[in-house]
Amino acid sequence: MSDNNTFDPYESLHKISLLWEKQINDFIYLLTNNKEFNSLTNRGTDLHSRYLESFKQNREALASVLNLPTKNDVANVANLTLQTEEKMEALKEQIWGLQDAVKSQNQEIETVVDVSKEIIKLTKQLKNELVKTKKELAETKSLRAELQELKFELLKLNNFKQEFETIKELIKMDKVEEPVLAGKSSGD
After folding, report:
1. What is the pTM of this model?
2. 45-81: b (≥16 Cβ within 10 Å) or e
């Protein structure tokens, strides 16, 4: 039969570490649960903080004399760098927006220029048409004047024709009366 109780070194190590942890915690509790220890640590902490503060002041004084940057100076420079980068990004975005606006304005200007070219072209065509119309109007006026002259001449010719017709009739009447008169004068 096999033995169910096999040796596990990790289990043993775990039990030993738990025992040590409990003993160390109890020891620390006994040490720190003492008013004298607490007052001593408070004084030690105060002394240490005053020492650190004076050390920091001495370090800054020495750094300013030697013209070396301090930790605060480096932190300030880092903050300024971050602020500058943020402002640069904001400016880049504004520049991109302006570039887009300029591009759209250029496109609008190009369309206006194209429309203006078309308007100029149409204006030139209208001007040419106006010149042609003026020439045709001048020709029409001269033709009208000629037609008026022809009309006047036709009226004269009509009057002349009527006069000629009346003269012709008078001549016929004279010829008809002449024989009658001649017959009367010969028979008398």
Report:
1. 0.39
2. eeeeeeeeeeeeeeeeeeeeeeeeeeeeeeeeeeeee
